[in-house]
Amino acid sequence: MTSFTKLNDQATPAISVHPSRPVSKINPNIYAGFTEHMGRCIYGGIYEPGSPLADENGFRKDVLEALKELNIPVVRYPGGNFCATYHWVDGVGPKDQRPSRPELAWLGTETNQFGTDEFMKWCEVLDTEPYLCFNFGTGTLDEALGWLEYCNGTGNTYYANMRRKNGREEPYNVKYWALGNETWGPWQVEQMTKEAYSHKALQWAKALKLLDPSIVLILCGQDGTASWDYYTLKHCLLPAHSALSTSAVPLIDMHSIHLYTCSSSHLPNATAPLAAERAIEITSSLIDLARIENGVPPEQLRPTICFDEWNVWDPIRAEGSQGAEESYTLSDALAVAVWLNVFIRKSRDLGMACIAQSVNVISPLMTTKEKTIKQTTWWPLYLFSKYMRGSTVASHVACGTYEGETSPKWLRGAVDTPWLDVSATLGDDGFANLAVVNIHEEKSFETTVEGISSKAQVFTVTGNDVKACNMKGQEEVGIQESSWDGKGSYTFPKHSLTLLRWKPE
């Protein structure tokens, strides 16, 4: 956690970090990814048979090489909105027998040449874990049970034998399963009321956990600040062995929320991810409230939050039905860094976070026929995923604040928006890490830094201005490496992310 004291803009900022005071463990799953049958994420992104850059499976080797740098622990699939009309059985078996279908989420045609077995193989090559999302639109409970049996079944049963016939003898042992995606949204096929969804989710959860009690089921929330979140948690977060659950294990393990942030103006753009911090806090309180009201015993494991879609995305600038290919700026990179600081600060409540998406679609990684391009947003994600692990540690920042308009507007009355956004960790390797985002467009801040007791490595992400972009033919934003003796004050450059890394004495 990071506490904050507001100063006037003329005062000298100060940051203190306390590596000896761990607050909560950071779940590695906060660095999860997301692949959806949308635009060029799958076809032309991770999968491009016939390309000179593809391996024998049709997987883009350059994409795999890049994503391996992020040490991604989990990848969500196949959506997203796509899953509301997706029938998994269309995407297994001989490829020449797989049907092409109209795709209603993004108004395309799905060839089904990439399906469950291809995704599982891709996860194996990437050394990551799969996370699958059930079709809560046109899908049925029987279909969902069949998919779970296909992936995890060990017996002499129909779908387990189908998997074996398709070339996979051993079960995939998929752990994470989502009970639908954004079923509250008017864009969703088979949009539901919160009452209808809660009833359906609970009944599906009962059946799914009868088939495989070891799976982790993820409830479909909204953005963490909505009555949908309260109602679904209240009606689905029940004690094991309750009258409605009749299960030896809890039915719901995580609660999903989604949020995208953006603004055409830099400072509202950079501060917008603080809405996610407030959303996490509200959702955490709603989880506690549901447990209290429903009499969930304290020994029953408390659900965590699955922030399984997050990113900077302007759907007007990068329309979903047109592939949602964003050209990210330095401003967007700083917003992503603030997003990641939020996840570190709120690590107690987060069980997973999936950046949407992993390749091409609102992504830090883009492909052409010849190469991959690392967008501005790649670099904060790379630094955090490499170094900001282990435990969140106590820190404090005192500085001035941005006082202008925010996006969303409610953010202005809900939280502070400091010029310096801070989080700190202590890794299992014994190294301490301090991430500082200076969102100010024009001013560098000479800052008193306390708690760094030895020489520190310094990684800086910045550019000439907040509009700097890596999609113009050259890398305008990257990582600059240097060092600091750890004494006195440090100047955090304007519009920058700085990561300080040192071994506490």
UniProtKB/TrEMBL annotation:
SUPFAM superfamilies (UniProt xref): (Trans)glycosidases (SSF51445), Glycosyl hydrolase domain (SSF51011)
A GO molecular function held by the record: alpha-L-arabinofuranosidase activity
UniProt feature, compositional bias: Polar residues: 1-13
SMART domains linked to this entry: Alpha-L-AF_C
Chain ranges of the Alpha-L-arabinofuranosidase C-terminal domain: 308-496
Pathway the protein acts in: Glycan metabolism; L-arabinan degradation
Record GO biological process: L-arabinose metabolic process; polysaccharide catabolic process
Positions of region (Disordered): 1-20
Keyword hit for Lipid metabolism: no
PANTHER family recorded: ALPHA-L-ARABINOFURANOSIDASE C, ALPHA-L-ARABINOFURANOSIDASE C-RELATED
Purpose of the protein: Alpha-L-arabinofuranosidase involved in the degradation of arabinoxylan, a major component of plant hemicellulose. Acts only on small linear 1,5-alpha-linked L-arabinofuranosyl oligosaccharides.
Protein name as catalogued: non-reducing end alpha-L-arabinofuranosidase
